[in-house]
Amino acid sequence: MNTKRLSSVVLLLCLSVVACAQGAMQSDRTTTEATIKGKRVAVTYGRPSLKGRDLLGKAPVGQVWRVGRNNATEIETAADLKIGSTVLKAGKYSLWAKKVSDNQWTLNFHPKTGIWGAPELKEGYVAELPLALSQASDSAEMLTITVADNKGKGNIKIQWGTALLSGDFDVAN
Fold it and tell me: What is the pLDDT of residues 130-153, one digit of tens each?
């Protein structure tokens, strides 16, 4: 086999391995969405498995979590959202959870998207949603995020194991 042909075969094999690896990394990604006041709000995230760990319970106060696996979790909204007194413009944002006390977290919105891995963003957050921690009646082995319409307001829930983080937001008129 000549060198040119061997190089082509090796390149094809390498591209196949990369494509398979990327496919595997994306295969555990999912999207949850809701229509609130006629506007679509969607969250796309990776679903890590718990594997017997209690990662949320053991996170130290002050810990910032990228929420999800591989690519950072992202929210995309067709409407402006009201997060407390902050109006978050329609668009796409990465989501980061921060443990602020033993039973209180915040969900932080950052305009930088397309982030892979776990580089904690130290600044630049544009909104912060308080999240209450409660115990779910069932256990979720894989991280599960839901977005729902709750009588015209938005609700986001993040469950992993029996830990359930939840918070409400509004769609600006």
Answer: 999 999 999 999 999 999 999 999
